[in-house]
Amino acid sequence: MKKIILLGIWLLLFASLPGTLGDEGTGETEGTGSTEETGFRSWFSDDWNFSGAFSFAYQNNSHLEGEVTNHRFRSVMDAILSKNNLIFGATFEVGNFFPRDPDIRVDMYKRLDKIYVQWMPLEFDFTLGDYYAVFGRGITLNLTKNDKVVWDQTLRGVNGVWEHGNWSFQGLTGILNNAATLEDDVMAAGRISRTFMDRFILSGYYVFFDDYNDVQRDPLVNIGSASLELLSLFDFLDIYGELAISRNDYGYLKEDGHAGYLSANFYHNEFTFLFEFKDYENFNYKFNSPPTGDYEQEFFPAVNNRGFRILPQYHFAGTNTSVFFNLGRYESPQYDFDMYHYYAGVEQRDLFDRIYLYTLLSFRKLPDKTTKFQVDTSTQLTQYNSLLFSYIHRNIEDFFEEYSEDEMVIGFSRAPMITFSFLWQYSERLVIDQHHFFGGEIELNLLESLSLKFFGGSLKGGVICSGGTCYFEKPFKGVKLAFNYRF
Description:
CATH class of the largest domain: Mainly Beta
CATH architecture of the largest domain: Beta Barrel
Number of domains: 3
Strand content: over 45%
């Protein structure tokens, strides 16, 4: 019923567009003096662009027990139809598992994952249906897609943006659409921004959230936020600051919360210096993702912590060599422990005109202690052939034990057609009654728009983080097949 209602609204909106369904009248045809209809039929027959993508994934995990079948598949079809300032889009999905947790057995499902129409006349941008949205640095609102951690969250409703001179206004409302959580949460939000002298941007944000399905807790969240961004100040400094206050009754977060964030990026010739300060308290929601405590591959929780980090980086002039160092230190009053992360590295491009080299050494405590060494290299053998190598070593000390992990990948690539690689993983701690994991992968780019990837072997799994979002990838043993086509 919801889909039928949405389709009806779209048709009404479509019919009301000026100059599209016969409002333009008639025009003379050159050389004949006759007239030609420019209404409904002509509008639907001219200048349409159709594009999209199709993907198919299959996997068979023999580590799963007690299941009727271990055969998992998922197919996704994206389609976009556009003309001038109007875009129609839809995503259709068929499968019997959810990518974020493939171990959960579900009956085969078919669903319209996303559908939207977008109209962009002059200074306006209207979307009806599914859309992504980010306010500022994502502190108050961050609805995005992150394939690395299998996260895809949109808001299904209405979104409107008006850009007029130095002013920008945005209002949105709808229901959270997330295949990973399958929850229906209502949200409304607004943004107003003003630019001064093309360098100063002052913004205000407001977010209202209601999990109306949870009748026991009845969680409500109200967030107000303001940010100031200074671009190219004195031609060598960028500054961004934001302060957000929340009033909430959100399950275990009964108290009000706040988030303070400050970023200053200094750059001069070959030298850059980044400073960040963060102060988060009771500020972790389904719809936001504040800047993490550290760089993208790591994760510090944004619920309760405060601290800073500095990241100087220097590029040696006349060379392709860069060095960097990070110092981050945070405290968590809620969990009564300090979190810190130090890392340093070297990036070398075109060594001997053939080799790319990246090395990283890091140490962090969160609250477990992890020491990591990482090296990535790519050696160009000929114009089209390259040799790939990657190695990571971790030593982890948590509350219960101390153990080490290793991972090595050796690969060969012949651009742009084929890449194959061999993977070895080791865990000193038993995972599914084994220490060593082996696998092989081959990727074929049959056409510019067509790719095929096959993996066979075993993976130890573990926590994967990116941009403040994490999920646990379970151990795997079997085969995976992925097919992608763009048109």
